[in-house]
Amino acid sequence: MKHVILIFFCLLFCSCRQGGGKNDWALLHEASLHTAQPDSVMDLLGQIARPDCLQGKARADYALLYTEALNKQGRIGTNDSLIKIALGYYSKQAPGIPLAKSYFLLGRIYQQQGNDTLALKVNLQALAALPSQTQDRTRMLVNYDLGYLYHKTDCYSQALLHYREMQKYVDTHSDTLDCYITAYSLGDIFMLLNRYDSAYHYYQEAISFARQLENKSYERYIIRQLCLHARLTGNRQQAKVYLQEIVDTYGNDFYNKAVLFKEEGNVDSASFYFLKATKDPQIITRTMAFYNLLQLHRKEHPALAFVYVDSFHIYKDSLYALRQTDKIGRLTEQYLQQMSRQKAEANRRENTIYLCVGVFITLLLCGIGIFLFIKRRERRYLLLEKQLVTDRLAAIKEYVAEQNRRNPEAWKTMRQEIAAIETQTLIGQFQEAVWQKRINAIQKGNGKPFSKKEQAVFQKEILALFDELVKRLQAEHPQITKDDLLFCLLSLMNYPTSLIAACIGCKENTLRTRKHRLKEKLSKETFGLFFHSSINQQDTEEV
């Protein structure tokens, strides 16, 4: 039974141990080696059958890898519950790069929520969590986010410091995209600080990297910044060159072409391209095209402006309705996410309750089983002990019977001594009872005689105490009454006849008559045993 209980608790411990299975650990390790390919990471993590059963480090790694993959796919969203699992574990168990990554990803989520203050705070915590001598890509990303957030809050000097920290990483880890981001970020900051030479230098680097990446959007942005730089430095001829280059890069993007011509003051070309932009499939592009047409023709062509303003309001209302629909959709999504989190939390609490109840019932059943086992064992031991005592008693009786046959006189004397010892033991037990105090009080004259009810209880208890002697008297004198039995037992304890009469509520002469009658009915030996006192013998002689 002990081995069964031990095996059960071992199985219970193994079922409740932390961590995932061997296959889950292998998938997490492989996913950590492919963080540069978010699709591969998502595919590997999707092979984990029960991610909700992961515990400890496995659970934190899963949350970090999943959120990091979402960030690289541009789908990080606004839900921070998953990354906070990783943050809670790494902040206690594994400070360093994993903790810094968790803070960084939480900052990205806060940016999606529009909370730049919290995003700035957690990015500073990420920077502090990184080892001081480590040149990890995470440090570059954190510095970029800090520079971007300081840039948004017009803290240009602080932004420049963090962009320069990015430059240190890029100088030792050449990556075209990282080089482009660093170059255009530094160029933008130097433009805002009116340091045009530095800005031009970094924009030239950025456009080179954009062309290596073959990204027209990146290239167009840098050319626009160079166009702005040429205007601010008074080089209008160079600005026109950049403008024409931008127009060529836009292709069929009529709206942005129109915006460029409007900025240059070319009203006809701007109006031409804005009219083309009103056929764009995107409602917001049509709306802004009509708005710009309204602005261009408000003074010179009022009648035409009225047409544009009506179209603008129609599309603006449509755009507002779409935005409201999108807002409702986002609120619905947030509500569903909240409901999903609440449901998951409720399920977790319910599962915890079921687990606790199951463990409690299991332990209770184990306790009952152990209790029953112990009781059964005790009962078995008692039965064995009883059997042993019975066997010993039988052996003793057989021995006594054999010795009695061989030497009857010696064993008769021994039996009498044993009977005398037993009798004295019973007398001692009676004298320790409450009745002895009452008898002593009656003997001294301080107590009241026993009432009828007390006499009945007294008689019952003393007959039960001297059960063997009672059986002996009843064997010799079957018609003996309970009053006579009580009289014999009190005489055995050497109480005077007067005291016995006071206790049992009769006269002394009546007791003397009873004693005389008992002398005739009982054997001489039995009578002598109960009325051995000289006082009682004297009473008998007087009768």
Automatic annotation (TrEMBL):
<keyword id="KW-0472">Membrane</keyword>
<keyword id="KW-0802">TPR repeat</keyword>
<feature type="repeat" description="TPR">
    <location>
        <begin position="100"/>
        <end position="133"/>
    </location>
</feature>
<dbReference type="InterPro" id="IPR011990">
    <property type="entry name" value="TPR-like_helical_dom_sf"/>
</dbReference>
<keyword id="KW-1133">Transmembrane helix</keyword>
<feature type="transmembrane region" description="Helical">
    <location>
        <begin position="352"/>
        <end position="374"/>
    </location>
</feature>
<keyword id="KW-0812">Transmembrane</keyword>
<dbReference type="Pfam" id="PF13181">
    <property type="entry name" value="TPR_8"/>
</dbReference>
<protein>
    <recommendedName>
        <fullName>Tetratricopeptide repeat protein</fullName>
    </recommendedName>
</protein>
<dbReference type="InterPro" id="IPR019734">
    <property type="entry name" value="TPR_rpt"/>
</dbReference>
